Amino acid sequence: MIDFKSINPVTGMGVPVYLEGQAPLVDRDEVLRYAGIASKEMRAGLGGDDPLDELYDDVMEQCRGIFSYRLGYRHISLMKDVGMSSSGYDESQAAAAGMSGMPLLAYFKRSKNLMKSLSCCDEVIVFAATVGAGIDRLIKRYERNEPARALMLQALGAERVEALCDMCEYELRSDANAAGSKMYPRYSPGYGDLSIEVQTEMLRVLDAERRLGITLSQSYLMSPSKSVTAVIGLQR
């Protein structure tokens, strides 16, 4: 999946790659965890019938075919010596080197946690993944009159997009290892001190609205809601 020769020496960017993912296997325990529900073994000690089994199975059947697994990523140089300084992204310096248009690096620089994670890295993979808007419509339909069903739908959607990200990360890591590179765990906006505002630039460099159908609200929330953006560090 990763073309390690794809980064343009002038722009510092590789060509965006877009994929239609296959549906990962559903992890029932993860769905229940996202719903804040104890495992079946723990619930068994409470006695009585367990209505969650029926609800879970019903939701799984209801969501058959509703998810669309789509992702995109871009291989980007960190350009530590050009356009980056202790005070952040220097647009004029970057423009002089023909490397303007990458303000997302400024957001990375503002995050001490992320920069610590990327301290050994030469490049990053910026990616976005989504399972589509169908689950959002179902959640909205039931959130007022059937909150338990809406909660299970929310949990299933969260598990689906995280499973897609895990599958993508596994494939990227396999490519990196085969090329003799080390890949670090993904890091998403909103985690630690990385501002969710960086999603504006992450989605822009991925052309995510046109290619993946992901848009951003004024409060930086993604639509479809079951979408994820992340940064993955690469060390040659």
Describe this structure in words.
By secondary structure, the chain is α+β, with helices and mostly antiparallel strands. It is built from ten helices and nine strands. The strands form three sheets. The protein has a five-stranded antiparallel sheet. It has a two-stranded antiparallel sheet with strand order 3-4. A two-stranded antiparallel sheet has the order 7-8. A hairpin with a 2-residue loop joins β3 and β4. α1 (28-34) packs across α8 (147-178) and α7 (134-142) runs antiparallel to α8. The longest helix is centred in the last third of the chain and has 32 residues, at 147-178. The protein is elongated and about 55 Å long. Residues 81-91 and 93-101 have low confidence and may be disordered.
**How would you characterize the largest beta sheet?**
5 strands, antiparallel
SS elements, strand count: 9
Structural class: alpha+beta
The percent range for strand residues is 15-25%
Name some characteristics of this structure:
single chain, 236 residues, alpha+beta, 5-stranded antiparallel sheet, two-stranded antiparallel ribbon, 9 strands, elongated
The gist of it:
By secondary structure, the protein is an alpha+beta fold.
List the helices and strands and how they pair.
Elements: E1 17-20, H1 28-34, H2 40-44, H3 51-62, E2 70-77, E3 84-85, E4 88-89, H4 91-96, H5 104-110, H6 112-117, E5 123-130, H7 134-142, H8 147-178, E6 182-183, H9 199-205, H10 208-212, E7 215-216, E8 222-223, E9 227-235
